[in-house]
Queue: 4 jobs
Job 1
Amino acid sequence: MGLLMPPDSADKPAILVLAPMPAAPVSAGNRRRLAATCEALTRGGFAIDLAYYAHEDQIYRRFGQHPPTDLLEMERRFRNVFLIEARTVIPLKTRSNAFGIDEWCPDEVGDFVAWYFSAYPATGAVLVNYVFLSRALERVPPGVLKLIDTHDRFAGRQNQYRPFRAEPNFFYTDTTGEAAGLTRADVVLAIQAAEAEYFAGLTDRRVLLLPPHFPAQKPFTVPERVARIGFLGHGNDPNLFSIGRFIRAWRDGWTPDRPELVIGGEICRSLPGVEGPGVRLLGYLDRLEDFYAQADLVVAPMLMGSGLKMKVGEALSFGRPVIGTEIGLEGFEPVEPAHRCRDAEAVKQAVLAVAGDAEALARLTRASERLFTRYAETALAAEAQLIELLLAHERERTSLSPDLQGETDARPDSASAVGGGLVLTCETSARSLPAADADLGVLVATERRPGHGMAAVYTPLRQRWFALAEATADGAAPDLGALDVALSPEWVRDRNLPPAARTALARAFARMQADWETEGRIVGCAGDRIEIATLLPGVLVSGTHPAAIFLIAGEGASELRLERVTPLHRREIHAYADRTGRLPAPLPVSLSLRGTAPAGGGCLLFLTDDGIGRITLPEEASLS
């Protein structure tokens, strides 16, 4: 928990921002919205404490996705960063017609809010992202301004899925629930005008329009030609359904003289097999400019969704002309026919029309520039209105209670263990170091905090383990016992510790609590090649997750290299346990490994950047 605030934020009024998604990297629309709102608050003179309720990782992991989270970048941007673990399993389906407004807001979120305002009584406002977290506002003390950033309209959202014969896998509710959630706030923020009007008819709370501001990155220039059209997005349902329809339309009749469709972002992981003539996947890109450098024109062929399509604002900010459907440009108040296409086929025809007509391409570029200019003026005016409201509240609050102040204590308590060629330090403190410490080394594990009911109040204190490779650290690696920890992906995935230190760490954490457990059977050995039949959670069967695998046998440990995961048709292993209650169903596989096969029994620690697995190898499981 980054309780040591930067010097330049010490005298600024503070606002708590609570969100169920990380603020970095901005690889999805809701993250871009969160980042834009926080940037507006920063420009307005506020210091931001960000509380990340980590349920997005849980949601997407169940669909085989794992969007990246950059806690280090978040630490740089905000005064304090807090992590609220998603210990409660979030339901993706309901037997009712809609989710109850509070079904996605467990007790631990409210517990955090109550703790925060006891530790930081000087904070004058709290902004909650999404109406389904509104229950947390009930734990906010009097005098604090309460805001909800709605992002989307959620009442009846499930009806958008019917034309696609699909079921929603994100939150939806009814108008009664949405109205009840909004009423918990003092101010409701809407991302676009039509939704502002809708919310104003649903609640008596003040509703403000706040479109996200997209600073101009590149000037508009007319492309010399349209060689590539681009689509950038996250792998959510609206994006998948919409681009899937457009890909089929674009391929129909495609010839090499037509533009190529390039697709970038997290969505590429959910589009296997779509590459071919006229369509190319760029994968996940760390920098937006790397995508827009490869797209002469951007398409937004959206067929469903609400809120505002952040991909459109980003494309315009990079000076790219845009063609899209009415849904795709909803909130931008378009007037150009190419910005109000009926469906995917109409978007295709509009692209082909400008690709073969230089004058039409120039008109589209100028129309896109005018659209962006009008939108930017609206966004900046709305931002100024919000900031003035927040500052007025802060002036009134401090005039009534001028002595408000909070106290924090970030003094660390640490202890070290030496052996196996490493120094392992356990620090107990409230600070958050997502990757490394200059003195203590690489962060290797973080204590998982108990869920609601196991602790009386939320506490920011937690244990973190750091490791330094030290050749003179003789003796056996320490045995830390049956810890409940989350492993840091840096040492697991990036291999930034030497092999001997990695092996010693595996030995130290050999008895940690696993997220999933099963049995395995060695079915083949040849030289240093080992084949093991076992079960894996469905999300790992593709073999694309970075993994580290250690064989723990007796007092020793060795690292094995995973070469391949091969799905099997027959399930020969039946023992399997999912401790989290939220992993996808296990599937039978064969693991192809390189290393030294165990002479007797043992276990494999199967470590990934988002989970811990343990595969037991009974003595009889080894080949004689």
Job 2
Amino acid sequence: MAKNIILSAIVGYTYDKIDLFLTSALRNTSADILLIASSPSAQLRHQLLSSPRVKLVDVNLQGEPAEMVFRRFFIAKEILARIEADEILLSDARDVYFQSDPFGVQGVLFAEEPQLIANCKVNSSWIKKYLGEDEFQAISPNPILCGGNHVLDATKAFSLTLTTPEEIVGLPESLLALAAQAAQAAGETEATPEAGPWRITLDFPSFGPFLKYSQRRDLREQVYRAYIRRATEGDLDNRTLIQQILELRRQKAQLLGFNTYAELSLASKMAPSVEAVEGLLEELRVASWDAAIADLEALKAFAREQGAPEADDLKQWDISFWSERLREAKFAFNAEELRPYFPLPRVLEGLFGLCQRLFGIQIEAADGQAPIWQSDVRYFQVKNEQGEAIAAFYLDPYSRPAEKRGGAWMDDCLGRARFQLGDRSISRNPVAYLICNQTPPVGEQPSLMTFGEVETLFHEFGHGLQHMLTTVDHPGCSGINNVEWDAVELPSQFMENWCYDRATLFGMARHWQTGEPLPEAYYEKLLAARTFMAGSGMLRQINFSLLDLELHHRFDPQGTETVEAVRDRIAAKTSVLAPLPDDAFLCSFGHIFAGGYAAGYYSYKWAEVLSADAFSAFEEVDLSNEAAVQSLGRRFRDTVLAQGGSQHPLTVFVDFRGREPATEPLLRHSGLQAA
């Protein structure tokens, strides 16, 4: 008798986890397959319904990124191909539920593989011990309720149209071109970079440069206030949702036997306790506080020298502007000057060359060998030292505000796995997504990147390398899967360091028109500017980290203290400028309310300690010692990148470094401790 096999909430779930479910739970070829998907495309719907054994439940979830829809097609295609092969034994006499839980409880509810269960610190046994599945799901926050779509809608709802030369004073050509494109897309078909009109939005490629370069302080204030008040009005107001989410998370933690959600979160992370995290953050805070105070005083002094009337009372919308002016004066260049030296094609060549140098891999364009979801998307193949294909990845590089959320990220399309089909062993190579939001090409000009965008590309590719260079065949812990959240940024932040390596930088920094290499003076200034305002930058991340922990550890959603009061209390020791009374940035703090960083934002700094220490190993053998660098690079590949989530991250780090991590390299790299 056929049994229903239920795969719940495909959207947001990786193929690997569904694949793990199939290989561990299904052994009866007569089973029916019930797929619950979010707004499947017509193509996906046709693919699903082409098998008489597949039933589809369409859940209407709006606002998905295009690559997520594309991923679902891969999932459905692979599932159907494997089921219809009649070589997979589907097995279980009972109905099986594979429930997504994007808010903290990791593990597979019905997995039978002891290796995976051993590596999951929070798994189904805890759920079964403390409550039934129905009760547990009843208090699991729905990701749609987290307001991520509210933030996206609020971001798109605001725009500032500039029409006069006085309103664009100070804006660089790249921003004027982008703003004119935005105006054209909004219906101003005659808009040009030279004559306008120019449309400024809250998408970061527009918002960030506007705050940095606009000489109109009143307009900077208008745009900044709109940014910090996103998702606070009407149907898009997230304030009530924040309270609900924090309360539901607290209930979930207590039902699972924890005192707080922060304790639940850390149970599946590298950090041993909330106290250990707070101890690390306090060590970094103490090292950063005086430097951040000095940063602000330096900005005031510089603004005063320039005759700025606001010099003694700088506000949040002034910091980026005066920081950039001070940077220009101190280092005699601005971020826009470097764009011509970082065309995307050359940067990719440099990145791929570094990967060959360190990890012995070759990366080749493979456009046309796989379907894409948008015409700008690229497809690449990764080969090992023997020339064998071992992985592939998509690159979706450009900003598309109407359909693509801001920021940059890496995700997995397919994960490495090995299957036993009868007497045959079949392996599957990993495929990754690399999504960025940099300035698109304008006319004949290629995408010209700021140095910050170069660092972002290297960062996200570090995630991709961990996914693609894994040697673990178990899909549940290969690549980025099952890696503790506070260790997952180690490869990405490690790769950022190489942007400052002479051989790497000069291998990619050439003028897009003349081919001339980046002038040596610029390189020296980049090195000097690396620690510019480092105390302020460090303190900002510590502020976010401690606020996140406080909300998920000590804050009582049913108590009298408000989340705004918590924000102000934490800011008193982590921010040299007090928050504005109408600052509602928590309503758009997607990392902890709509992403995976709840009680885990500290992971950035925790992993930064790991990555700085890892890179210091290369410094110790001398970055110009090519043989030593290559040898160490292979060791990094064979430990950090290869072992994925199959080992505890401290074990993996010690395998590479030979000892436990230390904070000294991070403080030294940040200029907060003497070399």
Job 3
Amino acid sequence: MFAVYDVGAYSVALLALAFFLVWSGDRLHHAAWLWGWAHLALALASITGFRYQLGGAPWLGAVAVLLTGFYLVCMYSANEAVQGRVVPWWRLMAWSLGLSGLIAAVGFGVDQLAGRLLVLALMVLLYVWSSYFFFTRLQLPWVGGAFALRAAGFAFLLIDGANFSTVHQSLPAALTSWTTNLILGLVLVSTASRQSRRRLEQVIRHLPDAVVARRIDGTVLFCNDSFARLAGVRSPRLMVGKPVPLLSADERETARVVHEINAVAGRGAMSMPVTMERRIRRADGGVFPAEIIYSSFNDFGQIVVLAQVRDLTERKQAEEERLRLVTSDLLTGLPNRQHLEFKLRELLARSEAQSQRCALLLIDIDHFKKINDALGHLKGDEVLREISQLLGSCCQGSDLLARVGGDEFVMVMSGLAGRESVLAVEDRARQVLAQLQREVRQGGLGVTMGASIGIAFSQPEGSSPQALLQHAELALYEAKAHGRGEWRFFSDDMDARLAASLRLESALRSALAEGSQELQLHYQPICDARTGAPVKVEALLRWNSPTLGPVGPDRFIPIAEQSALILDLGHWVMNEAMRQVAAWRAAHGHAPVVSVNVSVRQFLHKDFELQLYSLLLLHGLPASQIELELTESVLAGEDEELQGLLARLRDAGWGLSLDDFGTGYSSLSYLARFRLSTVKIDRSFVRGVDQDARKRSLVRAIVSMGHSLGLVVVAEGVETEAERGVLLQEGCDQLQGYLLGRPAPAQDRPPTPAA
């Protein structure tokens, strides 16, 4: 049994429990936590205070005072928490102790009635201030009214002032206190609960994801604004109690999924959420990819299924963009080599299954480096983008177009059947070459652009993307070897030629190894046209392989030029030529000028000039002992650095000779732009010059022009006395050919007497 005066205390304790329950559901609700502690402290203060008044131990009175101070501070701190200002625990305890000390000083030091009246005054002050606060600042009139009612209730307590807050308090005063306190507590519990629910509703309402809760039968319990917009409904409230819309691009599939989810949820709340991706159709007809997360919970015996719909449009776009960056060429936007091989594998499998073939066209832009060198890399990038558009205009249907290298593109034609497909591929190759044959101009400069194409067909028994690309590459080499601007089909003998080429390259690499005696320089005299006396010699490379036998320069030089071997080979020739000149000078006191051929890649290498002077210092030679024979392709660029290098070499005493004059383009412009020392008339103009009046006229013009520019004119390939006589009559300065001497090793070609 408990005393009547404890009824109010126990009711307040139950309110404290209610506050703690509210807080347990919303741990962020700090005000509910403080209101719970405040009401628990008030209940305990009443119980201990009443026990003290009935003659209990003094410590009961002290506890009652401490709990009263704690109650008042917690109520104040709860109001602060409602505004988002959290009072630290150490400050809360300090205030409680200070206020409790004040109450104790008055109650125990002066008079108990005075102490009780002080508590009454503090409570009235707190409730009046709280009422004003909730009325005006938070716009919560129900809470403000409850605090005002609680403050007004204390007026009844003053009627029986002597017995205020004692066990002898009158029943009306006690009922008034209990009732107003109970009303205030219930209002605060309701407010705290509503505030937690409202915060949750606000979070759900403004989630970017669409959220809907439904029962097993499909009845909507609640949804947020995002889901209402998907369903085309003005407000979420209008959907409550109605069947949930499927909102799916495939309603049959979605109905099946909903049935399965209901079956799982019907056996109890899901232990784990179920996630799936579906395409969602909005009420306006728009479709987007979405991730749907299903979960369920038990709501007083009723299973509730919660669905969260997340729009994946941005994520899918980001994934597609990442995939595009990985699989596409950034400059042109075309598929790159990796993506080409992936798509090509699919095309080949489909063609094989349908007894059809694919044709792969490997398209290489001829002399694209000239565009970069002459017009700049920005213009080169612009040209590559234009090329991709031009090639795209040549594609049809399921054709595949990709960029696989700096200036290489691949076009794949699929679904080819019958012998007529070869004609269709030839027509396409012809169309591509026509589209790409054009002049690229910028700032008064122009470069002619063209292309070469290698074509390979897939085999009926199946082909791999790598094999098809390799076959097309072999065909492309064949097209380039035949003068560029053409197309060639792959044939089986190209594989044999590739194998032979690889064997040759491997053997040449071994020949360049230190200590090898396979390479040797032979020297051919260049003679004075009038006297026939040798004036200089040309160093010519010879290779005698132990496995391949004698290999002509026409076989191994092109192989070396296709790889970096040409740089090593050119360095070896230059070093060996200078070593021989130094040996002649040491043995005889003099040596002829040696003319050394220099490849395009060797001359344009950034370290070429440094290597020349390093070799001169190594062998102790003057630059005038060496003449560099250059082809027109070396001089084809518009690079100012090239002109500067040629000028420095000429000023330093190096001889500079233009070889095979007349066989390239714009030969006359080279003679005018560059400071050369010698020009060599190509053997094609010399052969039969005694019988061809046109050739004789051309030789006469070249000699005249060379002399007017201060150049020594050399005629190559002189083989008959008749040719020699004509060349002498036309004014050639020097002659070279089998008639005057064949190439021979250094030991068989002693140096000529010093001039």
Job 4
Amino acid sequence: MVASYDLLLVVLSYLVAAMASYTALSISGRLGQAKQDDSRYWRVGGAIVMGTGIWSMHFTGMLAFQLPVALGYDIVRTLLSWLLALGACWVALSLLSRHAFRWRSVLAGGGLMGLGISAMHYTGMAALMMTPAITYRPGLFALSVLVAIGASIAALVICFKLRQARRHLGWYQLLAAQVMALAITGMHYTGMAAAEFAPGAVCGARHALSVPMMATLVVGGSLALLTIAWIVTMLDARLESQTAKLAASLRAANEELLRINARDSLTGLANRRAFEAKLAELQAGGDALSVAFIDLDGFKPVNDSLGHQVGDEVLVAVGQRLAEAGGRRNLLARVGGDEFILLVIGARERPYLNSLASRLIEAVREPIEVGRNMVELSCSIGIASYPTDTDEVKRLIAMADSAMYEVKRSGKNHVRFYSPELDLASGNLVERQRELRNALVQRQFMLYFQPKLNPYSGELNGVEALVRWQHPERGIVAPQEFIPMMERFGLIVELGNQVLELALQALQRWLAADRAIPVAINISPQQFGRDGFAEHIIARLTHYGVPYRLLTLEITETVAMADMTRTEAVLSRLREAGIPVSLDDFGTGYSSLSLLRVLAPNELKIDRSFIKDLAQSPAARVIVAPIIEMAHSLGMTVVAEGVENEAQADVLRSLGCDELQGFHYARPMTGEDFARWCFEQPSLAAVPA
């Protein structure tokens, strides 16, 4: 029996094969990217789509095949052929879900897939149920099976190789789909050529699935399924691409965040975290390393007098100079307000480090122009080296810091290298910190009182309370020996609170004895800066039952200028409550009329440095006179501290100073000594409450 083919359907069968191949390649690409749970769903869906596509190509080719008898297809065998196609594609996709390419697996998988496709083809041929049965030419039959196996192996190899493509992936995939389509259609038509139909043969399934019905089912259904699958694959790929872009953006954002976290926000230099990370990284290499700890001398007055904006600009300029002087190979970091550290890589020789430190000092010493202001600074530098000074890199910063503090203590503006003797000093520092903490717990601090007198009548106007440390072994310790340590160790606020309690207890005792003597106490910057400062003062005065007017709070210009907005709010609250405020050490800082008008303190204390030469120096009188006049014009009381002789007192009286305080009248004394002193003064025998 002579067979023929419908050319249009032959072309359509090739297009179906090409579309099925392209969709299969897309699905295989998704398998390589999908997570384990998602991969299972892709294998199931992919096997259905890919198997249906190959099966559709087969039956499209069968529809193109024409015999001079009516044809039809057995439903069971047709369905079985479809299941065989799905099984073959499941084998292929299961293999593709593995990420590693192995020839043994590819050959075995390709062989099973090829046999499955061949079984699908010949089961589909059997669905015709020809009588007599179809016979096959052995050579072409074997060739068709080999073509199916070869095409399957080639398809698997192409799928694996496409995963490695980074450029022009779409074109490679399209070309590969054409190669696979040619292989699939080649296998089909080779198998068809192997078939022999006996003359007068009859199709036993002509009354089952007819050719028109089969055409509608195969062509319409399969093309719709393949189209939908292709669209889903493309949309998923696009979604994956967008997800990848978002992930890349997130990685970039994280990297930028890490970069920002490793940088000082003001100067753009490395911060301490980045510095320590670099230090740890270099330690692993065993290279010689040195750390230079740099602290600016005289920066705080710049910040206090010119404001934080100018101070920030100065720090940026200093950072740029230090980075340039320190060298590109080395790493500069800002680790505190006016503290920098330089990591010197591959160097520990003292002559080189000394020369480097000199360059750093000179760089800082050059005047810095900020707006209309010309700022001049210096710096103190401490240097420690690895492995010369220590075999623990992590100790370098602390050792360089100790050396720097020794520079500060001995005059500033030079460099010192770490030496073992500093360990003893560090040990003493730790011991001093322990002692000071214990002193707070044991309440070893006490108050001395220094009178403030009316310069004309000699009457007692009040006292200033001055803290002393009653050390169990060293006796009375002056404040200049422990106040800086308290500030450094963060204990100054607790000390200030104890001073407040002691002053209020003294006021309570004096009030009980019908003596209302105003007491002034010094307030530290840290204490004044605490939230709720004014409310705390008011609460303690109320607790002790002390009239608010009897406690004067002395703050310096530096404290007042730290945060003007906050200072105004705190002073306003204190004024509302009736608690007097004194501006201490006036003349050593900003010292402007505008400052006095804004702060409006009750009292102004002229710094002792202006009083010292008052009797001998006309220039000193020229400075002090307008201060007193200006304060009086604003309704303030003026106190001169550090009065040591009658000549100074005479000048101050002539200038109209309101109160005098100093050794000329009385030294600071204990509460008991102060009580005796009061009764010994004729004009002070009774100070009514």
